[in-house]
Structures are given as structure tokens and as C-alpha cells.
Amino acid sequence: MDKRYALISALLRCALVFCLACGDKAGETGENGGMNLPEGSLTPPICANPVGLADIAQPSATVGSGTPESCTEAALDAALAQGGVIVFNCGSEPFTFELSAEKVLSRDTLLDGEGKITLSGGNAHRIFAIRADTREESPSITLQRLKFVRGQSAGPNTEGGGGAIYRSGGKLLVLQCEFRDNRGPNAGQDVAGGAIFSIGKGATTIVESLFENNRCSNGGAVGNLSNDVAIVNSTFRGNRATGSGGNPGNGGNGGAFSMDGAGNRLTLCGSVFASNQANARGGAIFRVSNFGEAQTSIDRVLVEGNSTPDADPSQAGGVYLQGTAIAMRDTTVSNNQARGAGGLFIGPNSSVEWRNVTIAQNTALASLGGGVAFDEGVRGSIRHATFAGNRAPAPVAFAAATVGGGQITLGDSLIAYNEAGNGFNPISCRDRFQEGGGNLQFPVMRSGGGSDAPGALCTSGAQALDPLLGPLSAEGGPVPTMLPAANSPARGASMDCEGTDQRGRMRPSPCTSGAVEAP
């Protein structure tokens, strides 16, 4: 495909803006099949932060007296034993604590590094541990404006997770922090969290933070069990789930993030998951619950260039969700790859309410569902979506856009330019969605024969028209989108219009089918 991409994804402070390569030829990719994402400048956050920086005007303790020499591990130990509000005075330059042992936090604590303090585990031990009653939300730990590097944890079960931070009980707030090169165990069915692992009633909240190059069997950066999680305006890049076989098995789920537990809420807003890898399921995100009662909210998120390998049980190069009610809007899932379900897998006991989403240029390497695979029992509705340029290139593969969806209503959406290797099965959709009106699909038939039956339509009333989509690129919103041309037949094809499109721009009535309004 002759396309080029330009993207600015804005996130504040520790989050990064990613700028895509430009030039004459389209589709240049990084090692994982996604777009190259070099670092850029920082711009304001996308979503409203649920919390702001805590007040440190009256600290309980100050580590150091103004010089690097005064910032000793013993001084830090004394402050942590006391708890309360802890700040640092280690001089004007950045300072790194090379810790000799894991530090246990047992009291309510606010630790603020003002962007100058790094805590290192020296690739030998974990940095912080909170061990309390998993039924209680005490102690409350707030970590802000700190860097956590080279933490190392060990153990075969949940207690082995959390290379930088392990929390059992209490609650945890992480604000404007960076986590790099932290490690949990390489293998284990239930061990998770190369940087952070949390278990218990209290919530984990992560705001304006960066996770890069962390590793663990599951949840390469963050793992959670039986607690609510909110991740806002944060970036996860180059993390990896190193286990194998999944669960049951020996791990490998959730290259950046993994979550298990019934009834808990997951909130992802204004965040980027890029170039993460898993060995089993969920190249970026893996979340399972039980009976569909758990809530998952995904808002203004970019899931880009994540992967699982071309080997069983590789599935869901971007996102794996099971047993949860999924509200997703203004989100792009692009350039992810897996053996099957290249972009997303939506598993049993799930429901979907998706609005203004772009599922583009994902690849199922050897099986079906380049874009999304839905379990046959998934119910709900999808409106104003764009499924474009997804691929299932293997000789036996087809349904490059979607698999499943028979109990989902699809409306006001575009299914375009998807490519399948098997010439005698549907190019785009294996199963028909329920008809929601306003859908365009192109192509339906191959010029050389093959899938030319009416059953190749993704909905019974889809119009076989080329929506004239442009490349995946920055079009003024928080994540990349595909803009229809001004003369696109998708323009004015929708009568059931969302108030705004994926970029946050007002829609007229009638409006354009797909995720974004035509110019």
C-alpha cells in the first residue's frame, strides 16, 4: 500500500509524544510491524486527570540536607519508617539511590522526588513492597515525580511479581513517574508485573507516567489481581510478557498490562500502548473476568504496533478482553499482529458498546481475524467505526476485518481495503453483524473471482461503495485516524449521528459513516 503516516500523540510530563516517519513511500514499520515511533516533545494531557500533584509544602521528613553526600540509604530508611509526606534535598542535580535491599512501606506515605530522584534496585532486588491485609485499603501510598529503574523480583507465584513495586493490600497512586528496565520472573502462570504488581481491595491509579522496557512472565509493566485500575495519560512502550503457554500454562499474557479478577473496573484514558510484546495473548493489554459484570472503559487510547508471535497460543496482538462489559470510544487499534486476532480478541461473557473507533492495518499472521475476533456470544453495538486495511494473508486465512459479531449491531461504519489470503471465503467478515444501517463495504468481490456471494457482506444492507479513505495519520485528534475524501460516498450516509467524531469535532446531521467526519 502506498501510504505514509504522521502522528502526534499528546501526553503530559512522563508520557511521550510519538512522531511517525514521513516520506514518499507508505507503510514503513518498526520491528513489530507497527509504525516507527521516535520520541518527541511533550504537550498537555488528553484526558482530565483524576488527581493532581499532592501538596508537599509541609513535609513530615526531608531526606538529605542539600548535598548528594547527605542523601544516604539510612536517611531514606528512617523517613520511610516514619511515613507521612517525604521529600528530598540532595542538591540541584538529579540523584540516584542505589538501594541495597527492598524497602517495606507500612504507613500512609507520600513520596515526592520533584523529578530529580531515581530509585534503583541494581538488578538485584525489588525497590518497594507494601504488605498488608488484602481486604483493607490501608496503607495509602502515593508516589509522585520519581524514577524507578532496574528493580528485580523473584518467585513462582503472585508474591514474585512487581519488579519495582509489590503491593498486597492498601492502595497505590502513581503520578508523573517513570519505570524503566524493571524485571519480574521470566516464567510463571500467575506471576505478573515487571514494574508494578497489585493485589487486594484497594485501587491502583496511574497518572501521567511512563513504562518502558520492563519485563515479567505476565503484565510486562503492570499486573493486577482483584482490584480496580485506572491508567490515565500514560505511555507503555517496549514492555514484554516473557512467559509461555498462557494460563493454564506458564504465562506470557499482557505485554504491557495484565489484569484478573471478578467485578473490578478497568479505566484506560488518554494513553498510548506501543511496541509491546507478549508470548501468548494480548501483545499490549490482557484482561479477564468471569461473568461480564466487570466494567472496562477505553477512551482516547492508541494501541499501536504491539505483537504476539506466529506460534500457538498467539492471539490478540493488541488487546485481549474476556468476561467484561467494554465501553470503547475515540480509540485507534492499529498495526498490531498475532497468529490470530491481530488487533483485538473479545472473549466469552463480554459485551461491547463502541463508538468512534478505528481498527486499522492489523495482521493475523496465520489465521483469521486481522482486525477483531469476537466470541460468538458477544452482544452489543458498534457505531461509527472504521475497519480498514486489516490483513489475514495466509493461504488458508480469510475474514481480514472481523470474525464473529453475529449478536452485535453494526451501524454507520466503514469496512474497507481489508486483504485475505484465501480467495474462496469472505474477504472482510466471516460472520454477519446485525444490520444497523449506514454501512459501506469495499471491496465485496474480488475481481478475479472467489468470494463473490452475497454472504460476503458484513451486514445485510451494507452498500458496496469505496469510502475513499486517506492514510492512517494525524488528523487533528488525540490519536491517528483515516479521513474520508470530501467526495466520499460515506459523507451523509449516516442518519444516526454521534455528537462528535473520533477527533472530537462536531458532526452534522446527516453525517459521515465511519469514525471521522469527511472534510
Number of distinct helices: 1
Terminal Cα span? 23 Å
Q: Helix proportion of residues, in percent?
A: under 10%
Largest sheet: 12 strands, parallel, barrel
Short description:
This protein is an all-beta fold and 519 residues long.
What does this structure look like?
The chain has 519 residues and is mostly beta strands. It contains 1 helix and 42 strands. It has a 12-stranded parallel β-barrel. Strands 4-6-8-11-15-19-23-26-29-32-35 form an 11-stranded parallel β-sheet, covered by helices on one side. Strands 14-18-22 form a 3-stranded parallel β-sheet, with no helix packed on it. Strand 1 (61-63), helix 1 and strand 2 form a beta-alpha-beta unit. The longest helix has 10 residues, at 73-82. Mean pLDDT is 90; it is low at 1-43 and 447-452.
Chain-wise SSE layout:
Elements: E1 61-63, H1 73-82, E2 84-88, E3 95-98, E4 103-104, E5 109-120, E6 128-131, E7 140-149, E8 165-168, E9 171-175, E10 178-180, E11 196-199, E12 204-207, E13 210-212, E14 215-216, E15 222-225, E16 229-232, E17 235-237, E18 240-241, E19 257-260, E20 266-269, E21 272-274, E22 277-278, E23 285-288, E24 294-299, E25 302-304, E26 319-322, E27 324-334, E28 337-338, E29 344-346, E30 351-360, E31 363-364, E32 372-374, E33 379-388, E34 391-392, E35 402-403, E36 407-411, E37 414-416, E38 419-420, E39 434-435, E40 440-442, E41 469-473, E42 481-484
Parallel strand pairs: 1-2, 2-5, 3-5, 4-6, 5-7, 6-8, 7-9, 7-10, 8-11, 9-12, 10-13, 11-15, 12-16, 13-17, 14-18, 15-19, 16-20, 17-21, 18-22, 19-23, 20-24, 21-25, 23-26, 24-27, 25-27, 26-29, 27-30, 28-31, 29-32, 30-33, 32-35, 33-36, 33-37, 34-38, 36-39, 37-40
Antiparallel strand pairs: 41-42
